[in-house]
Write a structure and sequence with these properties.
The chain is an alpha/beta fold and about 450 residues long. The chain is built from eleven helices and 21 strands. It has helices at about 75-80, 100-115, 130-135, 155-165, 190-205, 225-230, 275-280, 330-345, 370-380, 405-415, 445-450, and strands at about 5-10, 15, 35, 90-95, 120-125, 145-150, 165-170, 210-215, 235-240, 245-255, 260-265, 270-275, 290-300, 300-315, 320-325, 350-355, 390, 395, 400, 420-425, 435-440. A nine-stranded mixed β-sheet has the order 6-5-7-8-4-9-10-11-12. The protein is globular, with a radius of gyration of 26 Å.
Length: about 450
Amino acid sequence: MAKSVTAFTCTACGAAHKKWAGRCEACGAWNTIIEEAPLSQGPGRGLGATKGRAIPLAPLTSAEAPPPRSDSGMEELDRVLGGGLVPGSAILVGGDPGIGKSTLLLQGAAAFARKGLQAVYISGEEAGAQIRLRAQRLGLADAPVRLGTETNLRDILTTLDAERPDLAVIDSIQTLWSDQVEAAPGSVAQVRSAAHELVTFAKRRGVAVVLVGHVTKEGQIAGPRVVEHMVDTVLYFEGERGHQFRILRSVKNRFGPAGEIGVFEMTGAGLSEVANPSALFLSERGQPVAGSAVFAGIEGTRPVLTEIQALVAPSTLASPRRTVVGLDSGRVSTILAVLDARCGIPFAGLDVFLNVAGGMRVNEPAADLAIAGALLSAREDSALPADCVLFGEISLSGALRPVAQAENRLKEAQKLGFSQAILPEARKVEGVSGMSLMGIADLTGFVGEVFGAG
């Protein structure tokens, strides 16, 4: 009989260690390594001499029909899913506590059920009465969604195997426990085992399974990263508590484009779809003020215009503050260094505050020029034109690099009434007429043309 081997696993990133340590070498977290027994221990190290079955192989040119899809009628949700729900797919949805994950999935399950799909909603966190009260508040009490409350994985799989629904929502994966794993619910072993069993069931029975996952303080889905590799689609539900806007972002999608977003607005009657997010993010923009720049970005396949706000003020601290919300702080530090080294515009001794209006998160390098424009506008106390959009990537040499889908960005800006655009001087943009385009070669030229300094 083989000797049982004890493993040590990090609860933050799922990395395996041979012995216990106070700090995980993979992610750097402290006091996150726990001892756990392996899920199974085979009698030998190899597979032996027994042969398996031969799997069928097919050429790349073989014709295979695309998977059928079912739409919910919620265009923003269907867009993020890649065009609709695919039977047998496994979807993982993560988000901060209280952001609206349960509300979104209850509305989505009701929408699919009203389209003719058999939907089951199983909650391990809330009682049935709480979910029914939410359904009544959202006007979904008449939706043909069947509700269950359970945390035992064996009972859940038995129920789903007997009911054979088209869609099953499990809220949440951290509350489930398997009687085959000697660990507490929410541990790495339990989460991995529950996710594996549910994904295997989805593929075997053709049931679309949606798993809700908690997130860590860093915003990543809690538990081992292997769970994200198991599922077909990983969605993040984002938003700021102080804003009513919510963004459903596709991080991974085997059945559609990754990086796609759906925009919702939290109201008293639940989440309502936002068909034109650019107009919504710019709706509160008034008269042009210093420190404001409009960025024409691309989220997935759709162009989205957002306002980047900057504030520069003298600092009383030895180390000036750099507060960034909705942007990559490392990218902002790089732009500040380029402005200092290449353009001779220092920000030493100045506090810098940057924010993306509406609670939007922008990770695109094309936002560099808009960030630089907002910073310079705030520092010089000079407002940019109200009808002007900016986009372009800034290199370490100060040169402006071209970005993809410039035509789509400009068309979206023109649709919203913008008549000027500042962009990298690289190639001629075709298909856009009626807009004044200013091509800039480097950041020094941008400072001279827009703010009258060399």
